[in-house]
Write a structure and sequence with these properties.
About 60% of the residues lie in helices and about 0% in strands. It has about 160 residues and is mostly helical.
């Protein structure tokens, strides 16, 4: 199957926030680097990042975290089913608890994080892990909101890469 890439319309940059506010960009990148030293397993981190990126509508982050998840050994089937994780049999109870917390934290404007979601997450994560998870969710929410709003980064590759 061939793909006609001439029909694609790449998102355009609205605001080059990294160039215009380099001190803040460096600090945000430093926060991201600090978060790499975590108790959480890398595959779970990527799936959580991907789910938040999907909710917040950041095309760059969805693309990047899908690719990173595959590079880390994740299957395309699980990635494809992530938006419907509640109905899919392919996610563990620990992953489900993380996704529920990530979705609730991402949608704080709709309601606070319910005690039931927090209690379920606390049942699957040690206290330090839960702290790391909350930080990861907060950080990816910042990245995806920047990406969806300013569109400061461009996609690399084509549809077949």
């Amino acid at each position: 199957m061939t793909t006609n890439t001439e029909a694609y319309v790449l998102p355009t940059t609205r605001l080059a926030i990294d160039d215009l506010s380099p001190e803040i960009a460096r600090a945000m990148n430093g926060l991201e680097r600090a978060a790499q030293h975590t108790t959480l397993e890398a595959p779970l981190r990527e799936l959580v990042k991907l789910r938040v990126a999907q909710i917040n509508g950041c095309v760059y982050c969805v693309d990047m975290h899908s690719r990173d998840a595959v590079a880390g050994g994740e299957t395309w089937r699980r990635i494809s089913l992530l938006p419907v994780w509640r109905e899919s049999p392919f996610f563990t109870p620990r992953e489900r608890a993380a996704f529920a917390l990530a979705e609730s934290m991402t949608r704080l404007a709709d309601s606070e994080v319910p005690d039931q979601i927090w209690t379920e997450a606390a049942a699957h994560f040690e206290e330090k892990e839960l702290s790391d998870l909350v930080w990861h969710i907060a950080i990816i929410n910042t990245w995806t909101r920047l990406g969806a709003t300013a569109r400061p980064w461009t996609l690399s590759g084509d549809a077949n890469s």
